[in-house]
Amino acid sequence: MVARMNTQMDINADLGELSTANDAALMPYLSSANIACGFHAGSVERMRETVALCLHHGVAIGAHPSYRDRAYFGRRETGISAEEIYAITREQIDALRVIAQAQDATLRHVKAHGALYNRCATDVAAAEALARAVVDSDPFLILVGLANSEMLTAGRALGLRVVSEGFADRRYTPAGQLQPRTLSDALIEDENEAIAQVLQMLEHGTVTAVDGSMVALDIDTVCVHGDGPQALAFVQALHQALSSKHIRISSEFA
Description:
The chain has helices at about 20-25, 45-55, 80-100, 115-120, 125-135, 150-155, 190-205, 230-245, and strands at about 10-15, 30-35, 60-65, 105-110, 140-145, 160-165, 205-210, 215, 220-225, 250. It has a domain at about 10-170 and about 220-230: Alpha-Beta Barrel (TIM Barrel), CATH 3.20.20.370. It is of the alpha/beta class. The strands form 2 sheets. It has a 7-stranded parallel β-barrel, surrounded by 6 helices.
């Protein structure tokens, strides 16, 4: 692979899921936040608090819709229909928008959570339903999705601006999907490995899959899961690594 030059990258995390203190610690190192809308975690009050933190730190605000599944943190496939995916996505985006507007904040993007995200990466009907919900809510919203996924294809087809996402703390299958969390090697728990994976994505446009094969992917944003025990250490190290290579951290998605 030919090395690429990246001068800018977005760092995002899924927030509004744990404590306000956890989110406050992460915020200075982020450029975008995906805020839980109450279906898998969070609450109206947590949404308000997280929006306020984003405003304070100049972090872009996004909705993080999920299956209605607090018992399993939205990480269990529920098998609901495409029509239901549309409805729950609209409901969650619109709920966060109301909260953001009350603080004179603007909702900028949408990124699905957990099992809904994984389903929409490969299921065409689900991806189209998600994208329709976004465009019907606000055609100027940005849809964030897994690199090379059906989510991005569906968003582009409806005229949405789409952003391709890579992960610092997850391993990949040879097909370019996220390794299922049910498998022991799904998560990257070593900080150095996480940083090396991100730099490989940025410098070479590839990621090494669990079987050692190389998967091509081009990313605009990189995610560190805010609920992980290493989240703060990972995002601090990632911020430092990108800055040391003169990569500007920004939510502008150049």
